[in-house]
Every structure is written in structure tokens, then in C-alpha cells.
Amino acid sequence: MSQLTPQQEEAIATFKENLHLPGGGFHLLIIELCKEFQLPFQKVRNVLMKAQTKVEKKIRHDFSAVCESDITQETWLNSIRTKLAEMAQDNVPVMDNLLANEKYKKVLAALNVPIQNEYEREDILEELMQVYEKEVFKPLLAMLHTTKLYWKLMLAEDLNKMTTICREQFSDYPQHMEAAKILFELDEKVRAAKISE
Predict the structure, then answer these.
(1) What are the Cα distances from residue 43, in Å, to 19, 37, 90, 127, 133?
(2) In this structure, are 52 and 138 located in the same domain?
(3) Is the same domain home to 184 and 104?
(4) Among 41, 81, 87, 111, which one has the highest count of C-beta atoms within 10 angstroms of its own C-beta?
(5) What sign does the dihedral 163-166-169-173 (CA atoms) show?
(6) Which residues pair with 195 in a beta bridge?
(7) Is this prediction's pTM over 0.70?
(8) Where in the sequence is the domain holding 158, given as residue range(s)?
(9) Is residue 132 within 8 Å of 176, Cβ to Cβ?
(10) Are residues 62 and 143 in the same domain?
(11) In a domain, 1, yes or no
């Protein structure tokens, strides 16, 4: 590692001091950015770390080009938000993914005819569960990463547990809850359907 001048050491110390986020700091910031940009925790975390590393490298290797604003929290957050906004452009709305999901379409088609037996009912419920897992559960789990809500979501790992009361806990994620509601209602419909004679 290269020797740093006292000015470089001071700039790095100031930068790290400026990044200090009290009360849950980085983790809380990452969760809020996940929610805002609808991106998984690890992707957001990587952007934060890269933004920090980029400034530190600039201080170490191109110190003459560093200006005071480069080491502020505001500049750091702006660079993060810019990168996350760029990444979020590739996001597809949850409902679009749900409506395009082949298993979801298969379930809807299966519900247009009477259920013949319990095996068929179980197959439809399994298809619904797989759609829920792919389009709602796993993407939401990736955003919540070890928060209190993460553990509450783990209690709703099965679609039939994603009740109205459960969904209210995740109101900050309206796209996911809209899809969860539709799938939950289909699940109830399948469970209540009479077997055709």
C-alpha cells in the first residue's frame, strides 16, 4: 500500500466522518434505498461500497483532483442515487411480471373449468405457490435482507398466510402486495372450489 501524505490521511478521515450515519446507519440507508429504487439489498449495498471506494481511491491516487465537495455525504449520496436510478430503469413492475408469468396464465386457464379431483386442486395450488415465490416472496425477501420485516415475511412463506393483516405490514411495498393479494385470493378460490361430480 502506498504511503499517504498527512493531507490525504486527513481527507480520508474527513470523508469517513462525513459518512457516519447514526442509529442503524448504513443498514438503514440501504433498506430505504432498496425500497425507493425497488432493488435487492446486496445490489444496493454494492453500490454504496463502490461509491465509498471510488472516493477513497481518488484521494489516494489523484489527490490533486479532489475538491472539498468530493468528500461530503451529500456528494456521496448523490452518486449512489444516480447509479441506483440508472439500475432501476431496468425494473419491470411486479404486476407486469405476474401477468406475463406462464404458470400464472396456466392457473387462470385451469380455473375456467371445474376442478376434477383433489390432485388437480393440489397441482393448481402448487403452481400458485411457485408464482408467489418467484414474483413476490423472493424479490421482496431480497430487498428486506435481515430487517424485522424480513423475519415477518418468513412467516408468510406460504401463500395462504399472506392475509390482509399480513399484507398491511408490507404496505411500503405496494406493487408486491398488489400481486400478493391477487394470488392469495386465487389461492382461496381454489381451496373453496367444489370438485366437479
Answers:
(1) 19, 11, 13, 29, 20
(2) no
(3) yes
(4) 41
(5) negative
(6) 115
(7) yes
(8) 94-192
(9) no
(10) no
(11) no
- Pair 190, 108: CB distance under 8 Å: no
Residues 106 and 180 reside in one and the same domain:
yes
Domain assignment of residue 57, yes or no: yes
| Tens digit of each residue's pLDDT, the chain (197 residues) | 468 899 999 998 998 888 887 677 888 899 999 999 999 999 999 999 999 999 999 999 999 999 999 999 999 999 999 999 999 999 999 999 999 999 999 999 999 999 999 999 999 999 999 999 999 999 999 999 878 999 999 999 999 999 999 999 999 999 999 999 999 999 999 999 998 86
- Whether residues 160 and 100 share a domain: the answer is yes
Q: Report which of 148, 182, 142, 143 is spatially closest to residue 162, judged by C-alpha positions.
A: 182
Asked whether residue 197 is assigned to any structural domain, the reply reads no
